[in-house]
Design goal:
2 domains
Length: 186
């Protein structure tokens, strides 16, 4: 395995997060994992899982939280701001432009069909990334079967039974934390 890398400068952070943001409209988990872990090697798979977990429980968009953590890890506050700026600046301009276009062409059946097609692609990317990240279950203190059961129960509660996500996160997340803590203490 190759040695971990790091961003070379604040400009490297800004440009990298700009390019990352431009690749991931609608769902960036797959793109973020590939870029930060596999391509740039700024994080190991385990560091990514841990940072992503923290990013999910913090208020705000997950990838914004992750950009702040990654930038801050390497360059402190200036790094956090550079990563955040890269993540938001150009994509914000593009989204504003797309909003103007959508307002003009929203009634078009072609536009509606294109948006439905993009939603299917995003769902596939998220599912594939979930399967790729599931490999870290093998190194988790809890047995793999328990991890899979907690993940499956979370899916059933949110997707099928329509339970509110915050309650599921607090309940299952709290349970998983307690179970993991007990296994680590044993």
């Amino acid at each position: 395995m190759t040695a971990p890398s790091r961003p070379q400068s604040l400009s490297d952070l800004f440009i990298s997060f700009t390019l990352l943001a431009l690749q991931g409209f609608g769902g960036v988990l797959a793109v973020v994992q590939r870029e930060l872990v596999e391509r740039k090697r700024w994080l190991t798979q385990e560091e990514f899982i841990e940072d992503w977990a923290v990013a999910q429980i913090m208020p705000g968009p997950n990838v914004v939280n992750l950009s702040l953590m990654v930038g801050g890890r390497w360059f402190g506050l200036p790094g956090a701001l550079a990563a955040l700026g890269g993540l938001l600046a150009l994509p914000l301009l593009i989204v504003l432009g797309l909003a103007v276009l959508h307002d003009r062409f929203a009634d078009s059946p072609q536009v509606a069909g294109a948006l439905r097609g993009m939603a299917a692609v995003c769902a596939g990317l998220i599912g594939a990334t979930g399967l790729k990240l599931a490999a870290t279950f093998r190194r988790h203190p809890l047995p793999v079967a328990w991890c899979v059961a907690i993940a499956a129960l979370g899916f059933v509660l949110v997707a099928l039974l329509k339970c509110p996500l915050p309650y599921v996160l607090l309940g299952l997340g709290g349970l998983a934390c307690v179970m993991t803590y007990r296994r680590l203490k044993a």
